[in-house]
Structures are given as structure tokens and as C-alpha cells.
């Protein structure tokens, strides 16, 4: 079976393949249709890039300046894995034909290393530290697509969405926290067409596994972790076992993490169902099914969790309490169980979003405001767009986009120009 994550089949002519993919790319930009020989993973990425209005002929944006970058990456978990990356990829990065790069979960480049001549060439497309290379900002590329797809991937030449990047070929693999299962970023090698062989994909995948094993060696004893931000189905990691929960079980687990003292059946039913009349048998059946999944982690009389559970919700709250707004924004992968209508979950979701937005508005940092406005949950946030415009220098050309976005939203919400500061929420 052909590996869909590899760019070229064995024996394929890279020059001819590049011509065919380039024609398909131009046809997609012109009409939105994808034709062979474009791989499915690339077609899906092109569509995501187009929906996000990623630039097809512009340099990736730089989001972290030198001072912010140094402080951020010094405390980033992947800093501990850099010796592994340099040991396994360092010789390749210094051979005069490749670059090694490591990014965070948002696609921001934290380390870009390699021969100075190759780095200077890559600088022309802003493949530099501090630049944002997720699909939303840079289109289809190996680190950005690996983050989006959650799988090691190779992107060859004209498969890149952005024409400026089409002279390059890259392979990247996502990296996860071995303790919690949470995404930490991606490791990438970038170079010429010779990287299109299977060796480069295998190499970055092996490097990612080695880095995760290295991080696991220094990790604390296994704990129970629950990730529910930006997910309709929460991810439970317990003693190294990853379990995706259904929507109702996700709601129950989130609520129980907020009540370590336990909840009676009546109280839990109110948090889950509100004023709807639900038979106690219905709740007991849900809890029975959940207990079969999580075992002794779920106790009863009252219903409670028998071990401490780390949650991404609590992590964001702790970072906000410590005044670490950038860290909180990075940890916040989206609204808490966004499709949940459980009253208890909705209150938690609204409270966390409101607290994070207040911190962003209070910080008045353009990079943070811009990052929020670039998300699906922040792109319609009028108050954030207005704050971004006010945070930028008055004569800065960068104010054009936020002012235009704020104007569109005021018109969409039926607000007058004098209603600045009013937040029309979705």
C-alpha cells in the first residue's frame, strides 16, 4: 500500500511530478478544485489554507520578537529535547543543504538551525525563529500540516500552498508530552528535492519518538490528565493510556474535576441537564458506562474522582492567576467542550473565556491580541479587534487590517462608529 504521508512514490520523476502538482495548484487557486496527482493530505491542507485565507504569495508573519522569544523558549518543554534534536539531526542541519527547525503547537518557530548560507536563503520567506508557520498563516507546509493532521508528513515542492516556499521540500513530525499526551509542537527538516525520499520522513518520525522518550525519562510519576479545551470529546490520559471520551462522559469528567469533594446524583444531574426532568436511571446508566471505561478512577457515594486529575482548564486558570497571559493563551486550544449544552459546562466555558479575554484586553499586547483574533473563536470578537487597532502605533500600516475588521463587524452587528468598545458576541 502506498504511504499517503510520503510525497513521491518510488521511482517517480520529481521534475515531472513538480510540473503536474504546480498546474494543479494554480487550478486550485483559480477555481477551488483539486485534481490528481495531488495527495489527499495535501488537498485537505490546501482547502484549510484557503478557508483561513492564508497568503499564497507572501512571507510568513513574525509574531515573537527576540526578547519575547528567548523568554518563551527557555521555559518551553521542548528546550529539554534540543540535545536529542541536535544529536540526531545536527549533522544534517550543518551539511550545507538542510535546516532543522522546532516549532510550538501554534506553529511559531522556536529554533531554526543549519548552515548559514541555507539559513540566509530561508530568511527570504521568513523561515526564521519567531515566525508563525501554522497552516492558517503560512499555508501547507510540513510543520504546519503535521500539527494540523497530527501525523508525520512530507511536503514536496509545489505541494506547498505558498508559492514562495515551493522551491523547498520538508518533512516534519508532531511532538507530544509523554505524561499528558498534549501537543508540544513539531520537529522539521527542510531542504531541496532530495528530501522527498522516504528516509527524511522516517528520520523526523524517529527523532520525534526519541525526543518524547527523552522527555519521559525526566517526567514525574504518571498522573491522570484531562484535555477538554477546543475538543468536543475530551482526551483522558491515565498511566500512559489515552482514552477519547464521548460527549456526555466528557461533561461528567470535567464537572467532577471541579468538585473533588464529590457530587450527589441530584447535584450532578442539575449540572448536566439543568431543569429538564431526567430519570435517575438515565444518569446512573451513564455513570455505569463511564466506570467501565475509567475503572476505579470513578468513585461513588458521592460521585467523585479517586485520584487527582490535571486539566488544561485548570492550567489556563493557574497561568492567568500568575499573570502569564502568553502561556495561558498558548494553552487555550479553544472553548471548553464547545458543543456542550450542559449548564455546568457552559458556566465554566463562559467564565474561562471571559477571564482570558479580560487579561488580553488588559495586557494590550498587539501580538497577543492578534493571536486571539486569528482563531475561529476570536475572529468575530469586535472588542479585541478594536483593542488591537488602539494598541498599534497610530501611523502604523499594521492598523489597516484590524480597523477594517472592526468596521466590518460593527456593520455586521448593526453598531454605529460611536459604539466603540461594545462587544457583540456570537
Automatic annotation (TrEMBL):
Residue span, GAF domain: 109-214
Pfam family, one: GAF
Domain of life from the UniProt record: Bacteria
Record lineage: Bacteria, Bacillati, Actinomycetota, Actinomycetes, Kitasatosporales
Protein name: Diguanylate cyclase
Amino acid at each position: 500500500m502506498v504511504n499517503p504521508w510520503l510525497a513521491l512514490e518510488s521511482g517517480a520523476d520529481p521534475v515531472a511530478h513538480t510540473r503536474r502538482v504546480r498546474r494543479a495548484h494554480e487550478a486550485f487557486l483559480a477555481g477551488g478544485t483539486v485534481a490528481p496527482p495531488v495527495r489527499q493530505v495535501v488537498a485537505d491542507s490546501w482547502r484549510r489554507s484557503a478557508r483561513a485565507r492564508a497568503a499564497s504569495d507572501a512571507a510568513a508573519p513574525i509574531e515573537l520578537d527576540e526578547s519575547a522569544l528567548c523568554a518563551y523558549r527557555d521555559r518551553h518543554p521542548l528546550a529539554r529535547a534540543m540535545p536529542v534534536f541536535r544529536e540526531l539531526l545536527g549533522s544534517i542541519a550543518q551539511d550545507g543543504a538542510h535546516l532543522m527547525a522546532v516549532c510550538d503547537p501554534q506553529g511559531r518557530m522556536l529554533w531554526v538551525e543549519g548552515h548559514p548560507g541555507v539559513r540566509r536563503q530561508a530568511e527570504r520567506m521568513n523561515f526564521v525563529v519567531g515566525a508563525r508557520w501554522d497552516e492558517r498563516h503560512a499555508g501547507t507546509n510540513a510543520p504546519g500540516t503535521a500539527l494540523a493532521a497530527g501525523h508525520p508528513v512530507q511536503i514536496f515542492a509545489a505541494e506547498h500552498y505558498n508559492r514562495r516556499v515551493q522551491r523547498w521540500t520538508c518533512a516534519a513530525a508532531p511532538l507530544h508530552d509523554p505524561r499528558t499526551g498534549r501537543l508540544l509542537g513539531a520537529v522539521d527538516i527542510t531542504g531541496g528535492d532530495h528530501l522527498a525520499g522516504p528516509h527524511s520522513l522516517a528520520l523526523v518520525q524517529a527523532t520525534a519518538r526519541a525526543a518524547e522518550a527523552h522527555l519521559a525519562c525526566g517526567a514525574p510519576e504518571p498522573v491522570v490528565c484531562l484535555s477538554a479545551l477546543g475538543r468536543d470529546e475530551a482526551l483522558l490520559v491515565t498511566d500512559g493510556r489515552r482514552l477519547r471520551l464521548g460527549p456526555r462522559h466528557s461533561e461528567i469528567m470535567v464537572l467532577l474535576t471541579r468538585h473533588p469533594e464529590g457530587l450527589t446524583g441530584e447535584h450532578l444531574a442539575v449540572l448536566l441537564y439543568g431543569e429538564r426532568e431526567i430519570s435517575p436511571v438515565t444518569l446512573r446508566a451513564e455513570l455505569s458506562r463511564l466506570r467501565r471505561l475509567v475503572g476505579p478512577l470513578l468513585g461513588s457515594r458521592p460521585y467523585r474522582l479517586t485520584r487527582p486529575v490535571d486539566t488544561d482548564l485548570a492550567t489556563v486558570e493557574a497561568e492567568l492567576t500568575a499573570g502569564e497571559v502568553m502561556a495561558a493563551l498558548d494553552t487555550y486550544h479553544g472553548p471548553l467542550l464547545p458543543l456542550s449544552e450542559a449548564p455546568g459546562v457552559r458556566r465554566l466555558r463562559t467564565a474561562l473565556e471571559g477571564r482570558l479575554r479580560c487579561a488580553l484586553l488588559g495586557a494590550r499586547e498587539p501580538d497577543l491580541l492578534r493571536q486571539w483574533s486569528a482563531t475561529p473563536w476570536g475572529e468575530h470578537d469586535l472588542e479585541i479587534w478594536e483593542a488591537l487597532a488602539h494598541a498599534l502605533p497610530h501611523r502604523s500600516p499594521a492598523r489597516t487590517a484590524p480597523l477594517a475588521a472592526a468596521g466590518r463587524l460593527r456593520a455586521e452587528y448593526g453598531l454605529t462608529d460611536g459604539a466603540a468598545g461594545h462587544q457583540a458576541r456570537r
